[in-house]
Amino acid sequence: MNAPAASVSRPDPSALGTALAALRQRLGDRLSEAEAVREQHGRDESYHAVQAPDAVAFADSTEEVAAIVEICAAHRIPVIPFGTGTSLEGHIGAGAGGVTVDLSRMNAVLEVNAEDLDCRVQAGVTRKQLNEYLRDQGLFFPIDPGADASIGGMCATRASGTNAVRYGTMRDNVLSLTVVTADGRVIKTARRARKSAAGYDLTRLFVGSEGTLGVITEIQLKLYGIPEAISSAVCPFPDLDSAVNTAIATIQTGVPVARVELLDDAQMRACIAHSKLEGFEPVPTLFFEFHGTEAGVREQAETVQAIAAEFGGDFRWATKPEDRGKLWEARHNSHYATRALRPGCQVMASDVCVPISRLAECIRESKLDLDASGLVGCIVGHVGDGNFHIGYVVDPNDEDEIARAIAHNDRMVLRAIGMDGTCTGEHGVGYGKIRFMEAEHGDAIAVMRSIKHALDPLGIMNPGKILPA
Amino acid sequence: MNAPAASVSRPDPSALGTALAALRQRLGDRLSEAEAVREQHGRDESYHAVQAPDAVAFADSTEEVAAIVEICAAHRIPVIPFGTGTSLEGHIGAGAGGVTVDLSRMNAVLEVNAEDLDCRVQAGVTRKQLNEYLRDQGLFFPIDPGADASIGGMCATRASGTNAVRYGTMRDNVLSLTVVTADGRVIKTARRARKSAAGYDLTRLFVGSEGTLGVITEIQLKLYGIPEAISSAVCPFPDLDSAVNTAIATIQTGVPVARVELLDDAQMRACIAHSKLEGFEPVPTLFFEFHGTEAGVREQAETVQAIAAEFGGDFRWATKPEDRGKLWEARHNSHYATRALRPGCQVMASDVCVPISRLAECIRESKLDLDASGLVGCIVGHVGDGNFHIGYVVDPNDEDEIARAIAHNDRMVLRAIGMDGTCTGEHGVGYGKIRFMEAEHGDAIAVMRSIKHALDPLGIMNPGKILPA
C-alpha cells in the first residue's frame, strides 16, 4: 500500500545468482530462498507493504556476517540486516531485493562485567532475554521499546522507550560496537572505558544508522543496578492538557522520575479492554515510576503528587509488584491494544518529539486535528522527553483512510518541526519518514550523504533507507 | 620541543598571499599577521612547542567564519579554529601554517530556554561566562574542564571534568551544533528536541572532531537546575589504594555522586601550597560533592561515609559555601599548582581512562613506575569515570627529562589500552596523542579516515590532528 521512497535498482540477475551460489556454499541450508521465509523477512510490525528479499542468510558469527557482506559487495547485492522485524518504518524492507542477514541465531550474552556495570552481547539478543539473564546478578538494562526487539536492532534504530527520561536512549547506553563495514571488514568502534576523547565518535555514528553504513554484530552495553526501591503510580486527569502539564512541571522541577507516560482517553480505553485492567477509567492518564532508595522514591513521589494535585490529578500508588507489572505490561502492549480496536486493521505509528515547553500545544493541536479527521487513533507518549505517538488504526484495504492518516501525520510532523522538534523521536526513518528529512535537516542532508557514500561507496547497505534519493 | 606528528605540507606562498589579501579585504584589521598574535595562537597550555599560523582571523559571526573558510578552501589554506587556547595536546598548533580562526569575539549567549532547560551560545562563550549569565535563573551548565575553556573548544575536544560522573561529558550535553563545513556551508546538526532517531548523529560526530571536519560556531546546550542542596566532603586516606577503592565502591553501589576526585600525596602537597589550603595534609585524598534534595544529599553522603570508613578514610564535611568554593577552586587550579612546583617548568598532562574495575591496578602500577622514573609528577583523577591524569612537571630545556616523561606516559597508555581503556579520557588527541591511535582503534582508523576525506577532501581543516598520516 505504500511504495518505497528511494529508487534503488535491483541487482543484476546473473550477479545475484553467482552471489547466492557462493552464499549457499558457505551457509548450506542457513541460506533460504523459500517464499514464506523471504516474505516474513520483508514485513515489519507496521502498515508498510511487504518487500521481500531474494534470500535470507542466517548468520552464526561476526566472521560469517563479514563473509556474507564480502560476497554481496563483490557482486553488488543489497544487504539488509534483520533482528526481530519489529521496526515500524519499513527499515527491513528489501525494496531493491538482495540478501537479508538474519541475526537471530547470534543470541549469546558474551560477557557480563558486573563490577564495571557493562556487558557484551551478540546483536540478536533481545532486551527481555538480556534482562532475564541479568536478573540474578541484580543488574538490568533499561531501554525498552514496546516490542521485545533485538539489541542490535535497537542500536540500529537508536531506540528508546519508557525509561529514556531517566536512563537515556540507545545513544547514551552503548559503550562500543562491533561492526561489519560495507567492504566486509570488522571494526570495533571504541574501547570499554566509560569515556574517551580519542577520535571520531564512531559508536554514535553507527547507532541510528539503520544498517545503511554497516552491520552491527556485537554490542558493549551499559548496565544499571536494580534500584533498591521502585514504586509506580497512576494518575487520571480531568483533561489532556492537565495531564501533559503535570508531566512538563515534573521535568522542569528536576524530579529524577524513571518513567512518565501519557495515555489519552482512547488509548486508555484500548488498554483497559486489551489488558483487562480493573479500576481504571478511559480518561487521560499518566503512569509514573520512581527508582531510588526507599526514602528517595518516597520523596520523588510526594513531589509529583503535589504537582499533579495542582492540575486536578488523582494520584494513586501501585506499590505491589504484581500491580506494577500489570500496569507496565499494559503500557508495553498498547500498540497491540490499539491494533485490537479494529480486527484486521494495522497500526500506523507516528513519533514526533518536541522541546517540552511546546509539548502541550503540539498534543492539543494534533488531537483536535485527529478528532476533525474522523480517524481512529490513540495517543501514547514518553512525555518526559517531549515524545509522543499517535497510533492510527487503518484498514489496509482502505486507501482513502490511509491517505487521511498519512496527511494527518504529515501535518503533525511539520507542526513538530516548526516547534524545533523532530519527525521521529525513537522509531527511526526507514523509508517511511524519508520524505521529512529535507524539512528537518536542510543542508545537513548533504553531509549525511557524504558519509554514506564514503562508508558504503557501492550503496549496498540497506539501500533506500534514511536518505532521500 | 616536540615535532608535529603528521606531515602536512605548507600552503603555496602565492596562494597564501592571495587568500590573505581577500581575508584582509573582508575583515580589515581583524586579520592579524603580527608575530606576537600569531605566536600566542600557536601555543596551548601544554609542553608542546609553539606552531604559529601565518595569520589570525578574528571572526564576528557564523557567516563570517563561512566566508573565511570559503576563501581558505579556494586557495587550499589550512584553517585552525581557536577558542581560548587552553587545550593540552597541540590541538591549535599550525604545523602547516595557515589561518587560525579566533572565535573569542563570538561570545554571546543567544538564548536561554529555561522551560526546556537548554540554551544557545556562540562558540567563544566560556564556561564560567555562561554560568555567570545563568546564575540568576537558577540554572547551570555542569561540564568543567580545569581551564575556563570556550564552549566551542569544549565541544571540539569532547571535554568533561569533575562533574562528568553525574552529568556526562560534552557528548551527552550538546543538543545541536551550528557548523561551518570545509567548503564553507553552514549546517545545523540537529533540532532542539531532547531525542531524535532521524538520521546520522552529526552532533556526536562533530563533538570531539577537534576542528578537523568543520568549525563549530554555535552550540545548543542542555542545562540543569541548580540543585536544592549541595554538600561537599574531603576524605584523606592512609594510602592510594584505599582512596581509589572507596571511589570504585561508591560507583558500584550506585550512589549518584556529583563529583569524586582523587588527589595523590604529591598533588595534595602542590595544591596545599598553591591554594593555601588549611587543615589538609599531603596524603591521598578524595574530594566529594553531592547534589540533590536536602534529604537525598544527606543519604548519599552517609552511604559514602560508611564506604570510606571501611577503607580507613577520615570523611569530613564541608557544608559552608565558602569552604566548598575554596576546595573546588583548589581542585580546578591543580594544573597550575603542579606547574608551580618547579618555576620555569611546564606540565605534560597524561589522560588515560580505564574500566573502573581496573582503575586501582592501573593507578598503582603507574605510580610505582613514576616513583622509579625519578620524574616529578602529580596524580589527579576523575576516578568515578575511571579517568586520571599524571601531570609531569618537565623542564622544557631538558630533553632527557621530557623523553623520560614521554616514555612513562607511553607505558601507561599501553597499560590502559591493555585494560580496554583509552589514551585520552577528555583531553583529546591533537597531535600529541596521534601515535596511540592505531593501538587503540586498529582498523577503525580507516573508517575515521574515510569520514575525514569525505567531509574535508582538501585536507584543510586543522591538518595533522587526530589521524595518523
Automatic annotation (TrEMBL), chains A, B:
Gene3D superfamilies: 3.30.465.10, 3.30.70.2740, Vanillyl-alcohol Oxidase, Chain A, domain 4. The keyword Membrane does not apply. It comes from Thalassobaculum fulvum. Its EC number is 1.1.2.4. It comes from the Bacteria. Keywords: FAD, Flavoprotein, Oxidoreductase, Transit peptide. InterPro entries: FAD-bd_oxidored_4_C, FAD-bd_PCMH, FAD-bd_PCMH-like_sf, FAD-bd_PCMH_sub2, FAD-linked_Oxase-like_C, Oxid_FAD_bind_N, Vanillyl_alc_oxidase_C-sub2. One of its GO terms (biological process) is lactate catabolic process. PROSITE patterns: FAD_PCMH. Coiled coil: none annotated. The lineage of its organism: Bacteria, Pseudomonadati, Pseudomonadota, Alphaproteobacteria, Rhodospirillales. Pfam families: FAD-oxidase_C, FAD_binding_4. This is D-lactate dehydrogenase (cytochrome). Its cofactor is FAD. Signal peptide: none annotated. SUPFAM superfamilies: FAD-binding/transporter-associated domain-like, FAD-linked oxidases, C-terminal domain. Belongs to the FAD-binding oxidoreductase/transferase type 4 family. GO terms for molecular function: D-lactate dehydrogenase (cytochrome) activity; D-lactate dehydrogenase (NAD+) activity; FAD binding. Residues 49-226 form the FAD-binding PCMH-type domain. The keyword Endoplasmic reticulum does not apply.
